[in-house]
TrEMBL record:
Annotated gene: ELIP1
Family from the record: Belongs to the ELIP/psbS family.
Species this protein is from: Camellia sinensis (Tea plant)
Pfam families referenced in this protein's UniProt entry, alphabetically: Chloroa_b-bind
Name of the protein in question: Putative cold-inducible protein
Subcellular location: Plastid, Chloroplast thylakoid membrane
Predominant location: plastid
Keywords: Chloroplast, Membrane, Plastid, Thylakoid, Transmembrane, Transmembrane helix
Topology in membrane: Multi-pass membrane protein
């Protein structure tokens, strides 16, 4: 049989009074240990019958509070002509790098097949090919940028936007080095 003080302690959780305040009402000591909120609760049956000899405690695990993280918002990309084609904008170095990559491969392929150097290739009908390729690649590079797309959004794994920039830079250096070497040598490299 529970005492009236114990009954009042057990009946008060609904009233909003904290466990510490309830417990301190009935204990004369000044130190009251703080009860943990997420402590496991054990429920046991205290029947007099021998039916429940094998009693297993039921414990509730403490709830895990992991913050929900949302992906950062995508930065707005400017589609103004002056921003896209600015010196530090997304278009100039990419377009020049793409043209240099195609130009370097084409120059080396023609040099290996016909034995002509870069200046001979340009003077023997290479200007229209250069102009056509430049227009097509420039438009193909600018249209997604003017629609608000960014180069980094389609960058995955080994084919990243940084890899494209570095390949373009090396191709530009390769074209200049090829033309300079052929000029100093006085003919085709191969």
């Amino acid at each position: 049989m529970a005492t009236p003080a114990m009954q009042s302690i057990l009946a008060r959780p609904v009233s909003g009074v904290t466990a510490r305040a309830r417990f301190s009402q009935f204990t004369p000591c000044s130190y009251v240990p703080r009860l943990q909120r997420n402590a496991g609760m054990q429920v046991r049956c205290m029947a007099e019958d021998d039916q429940n000899k094998d009693v297993t405690p039921i414990t509730t695990p403490p709830p895990t509070s992991q913050p929900i993280s949302f992906p950062p918002p995508k930065p707005k990309v400017s589609t103004k002509f002056s921003d896209v084609l600015a010196f530090s904008g997304p278009a100039p170095e990419r377009i020049n790098g793409r043209l240099a990559m195609i130009g370097f491969v084409a120059a080396m392929a023609v040099e290996l097949s016909k034995g002509e150097d870069v200046l001979a290739q340009i003077s023997n009908g290479g200007v229209p090919w250069f102009g056509g390729t430049s227009i097509v690649l420039t438009l193909a590079s600018l249209i997604p940028l003017f629609k608000g797309g960014s180069v980094e959004s389609r960058s995955e794994g080994i084919m990243s936007s940084d890899a494209e920039l570095w390949n373009g830079r090396f191709a530009m250096l390769g074209l200049v080095a090829l033309a300079f070497t052929e000029f100093v040598k006085g003919g085709a490299l191969v």
